[in-house]
From TrEMBL:
Residues 51-229 form the Ribosomal RNA methyltransferase FtsJ domain. The gene is rlmE. It comes from the Bacteria. This is Ribosomal RNA large subunit methyltransferase E. It is found in: Cytoplasm. Its EC number is 2.1.1.166.
Length: 232
C-alpha cells in the first residue's frame, strides 16, 4: 500500500499507471503524480471539461441532498479553479443578464459564463458587502464554502485558521440566506467547534456531516450540511 500525500491509501494492485522515481523528483511528488494519473475523478473531470475533481464532491452532495434547482441563487466561497461554480451554473441556469451564481477566491479564475467571479480574500472586511452587491442585493438560496487555508504545519495554528474560515462563512451565510436556505462548508473531522455547531443548530432546521465519495478516504475533510435556514 502506498500512502498518498494528504490523501488516502492506494492499493498497489489497483494502480493502472505506476510512476518511477526519477532523479530530481521527490518521493512525495512521485506519489502525488501516481495518484493523479490513477484517479478516476481526475480523468472524469478532464473528459467532461470540469475544472477540478472537486466538482464531483458538489455533484454527489447534490445527488444526496437535492441542493440545487433551476433559478436558485448560489454563493461559492473559495471558488477557484471553479468546479463548484461550473456545477451550480449548469443547474440553476444562470445567464449574463440574470446572474445567479457569485464566486470569490483570492486566486485568479478563468471566466465562467453567467457567473460573477470576484478576486478577493474573503476574510477582508469589505468582502461580504462586495458579494452582496454582486448578488444585486438579493438573498441567496445556497451558500457553499470549499475554502481551505494553506497549512503552516503548526497543528494549533492550522486548526484555528480552519475554524476561523468556517465561522466567517457561517456568519456570512446567516446574513445573506433566504429562509429555507442551505449552508455547506468544508470542515475537518474533529475540527467543528461545539460553539459553531450550536449556533448552526439554532439557525437551521437540520445540521449534519457528510463525506461524498469523491472526497479522498484518507483525508480528514468532510462537509457540514445545514439546511432549512430559519431566517433572521
Ligand atoms: C479546495 S479549493 C476549492 C475548489 C473548488 N470548490 C472547485 O471545485 O474548483 C479551496 C479554495 O479556497 C480558496 N481560499 C482559501 N482561503 C480563502 C480566502 N480567505 N478567501 C478566498 N478564497 C480562499 C483557495 O484559494 C482555494 O482556491
Amino acid at each position: 500500500m502506498a500512502k498518498a500525500p494528504g490523501g488516502g491509501r492506494q492499493s498497489e494492485k489497483d494502480l493502472k499507471v505506476r510512476v518511477k522515481t526519477s532523479k530530481g523528483r521527490k518521493i512525495g511528488s512521485t506519489l502525488w503524480l501516481q495518484r493523479q494519473l490513477n484517479d478516476p475523478y481526475v480523468a472524469r473531470a478532464r473528459n467532461e471539461g470540469m475544472r477540478s475533481r472537486a466538482a464531483y464532491k458538489l455533484t454527489e452532495l447534490d445527488e444526496r441532498f437535492g441542493l440545487l434547482r433551476k433559478g436558485m441563487r448560489v454563493v461559492d466561497l473559495g471558488a477557484a479553479p471553479g468546479g463548484w461554480s461550473q456545477v451550480a451554473a449548469g443547474i440553476v441556469g444562470t445567464t449574463a443578464e440574470n446572474p445567479l451564481v457569485v464566486g470569490i477566491d483570492y486566486l485568479d479564475m478563468d471566466p465562467i459564463p453567467g457567473v460573477i467571479l470576484l478576486k478577493k480574500d474573503f476574510t477582508e472586511d469589505d468582502a461580504p458587502d462586495m458579494l452582496i452587491e454582486a448578488m444585486g442585493g438579493h438573498k441567496a438560496d445556497l451558500v457553499l464554502s470549499d475554502m481551505a487555508a494553506p497549512t503552516t504545519g503548526h497543528r494549533a495554528t492550522d486548526h484555528l485558521r480552519i475554524i476561523h474560515l468556517v465561522e466567517l462563512a457561517a456568519d456570512f451565510a446567516i446574513q445573506v440566506l433566504a429562509p429555507g436556505g442551505t449552508f455547506i462548508a468544508k470542515v475537518f473531522q474533529g475540527g467543528t467547534e461545539h460553539e459553531l455547531l450550536a449556533m448552526l443548530k439554532k439557525n437551521f432546521a437540520t445540521t449534519q456531516h457528510a463525506k461524498p465519495p469523491a472526497s479522498r478516504q484518507g483525508s480528514a475533510e468532510t462537509y457540514l450540511v445545514a439546511r432549512g435556514f430559519r431566517g433572521t
